[in-house]
Amino acid sequence: MSARTKRTYNLSPTTVHRVRELADLSGFARSQDEVVELAVERLYLEVRAREEAAVWEAAANDPSFKAEMSGIAHDFRDGEGWPA
Q1: Could you give the CA distance from residue 73 to residue 39 in angstroms, rounded to a whole number?
Q2: Which segments within the chain are labelled E, that is strand?
Q3: Are 76 and 83 within 8 A, CB to CB?
Q4: pLDDT tens string 9-50
Q5: Coil, strand or helix: which one is 76?
Q6: Is the dihedral angle over the CA atoms 10, 14, 17, 23 positive or is it negative?
Q7: For residue 39, with 0-12 CB atoms within 10 Å meaning exposed, 13-18 middle and 19 or more buried, which class applies?
Q8: d(C-alpha 13, C-alpha 56), whole Å
């Protein structure tokens, strides 16, 4: 079992109600703690995905990146093997 840390947060009554409601749904989460863990993990992944999308967007507008990718695409265009 992984280590747990007891924390106290000041949440709105609406958030507390929603956590309890989600914990009571059959098959969703085994506890209110698990509801919070699932929600935080989902938010974390969403934030990381946005960050990664921003990096790829910047790369798509970077002339040196575009030139490098064009060169790589050219090298692999006519065959399925490694370039000579």
Answers
A1: 40
A2: none
A3: yes
A4: 999 999 999 999 999 998 889 999 999 999 999 999 999 999
A5: helix
A6: negative
A7: middle
A8: 39
Rounded Cα–Cα distance for residues 73 and 61 (Å): 17
Cα separation of 28 and 35, whole Å? Answer: 8
Sequence-distant (6+) residues with CB within 8 A of 32 are 19, 20, 23
DSSP, collapsed to helix, strand or coil, labels residue 73 as: helix
Q: Which of 14, 19, 60 is nearest to 38 (CA)?
A: 19
Instruction: Name the residue ranges covered by the structural domains of the chain.
Output: 13-76
Any idea which residue has 């749904």 for tokens?
A: 25
pLDDT band per the 50, 70, 90 thresholds, residue 81: low
How far is it, in rounded angstroms, from Cα 59 to Cα 53?
Answer: 10
Residue 74 confidence (pLDDT): 87
